[in-house]
């Protein structure tokens, strides 16, 4: 079998389903500031919205005066904790990856990095 040069996977929705976990992280980071956002509200309103846009919109709506970089730091720590605790592969992905038998020179997963999330 010939070699495959490179395989790219989109991360969210292909390898893992992280959207709900990300939304839960938003719910969690605002609790210490007295904001009780529901998970359903965050999913409906902010799913797929960039981190700093969410911080700005929630802060403006609720009169929150926390420095955005502080909330980003809390979000990154919370998302790491939730990923470690809850992140699972999409059904069938482990089997799909195991079924790739051709030699592969490079594998990449695409996902936003902190800089592009701003």
Secondary structure elements and pairings:
Elements: E1 4-10, H1 19-30, H2 39-46, H3 51-62, H4 68-86, H5 93-99, E2 104-110
Parallel strand pairs: 1-2
Structure write-up:
Helix 1 packs across helix 4 (68-86). The N and C termini lie far apart (43 Å). The radius of gyration is 18 Å and the shape is elongated. Helices cover 49% and strands 12% of the residues. It has 2 domains: 1-17 and 93-118, no CATH class; 18-87, DNA polymerase, domain 1 (Orthogonal Bundle), CATH 1.10.150. It has a two-stranded parallel sheet. The mean pLDDT is 87. By secondary structure, the chain is mostly helical.
Task: Write a brief structural summary.
By secondary structure, this protein is mainly α. The chain has helices spanning 19-30, 39-46, 51-62, 68-86, 93-99, and strands at 4-10, 104-110.
Search tags:
single chain; 118 residues; DNA polymerase, domain 1; 2 domains; 5 helices; 49% helix
Count of β-strands? 2
* Biggest sheet character: 2 strands, parallel
Shape: elongated
How would you state the average pLDDT, rounded?
87
Amino-to-carboxy terminus distance = 43 Å
Order of helices and strands: EHHHHHE
Put simply, the count of helices is: 5
CATH fold topology of the largest domain: DNA polymerase, domain 1
Helical residues, percent: 40-55%
Question: Strand order within the widest sheet?
Answer: 1-2
Unreliable spans are none
CATH class (first level) name of the largest domain: Mainly Alpha
Radius of gyration: 18 Å
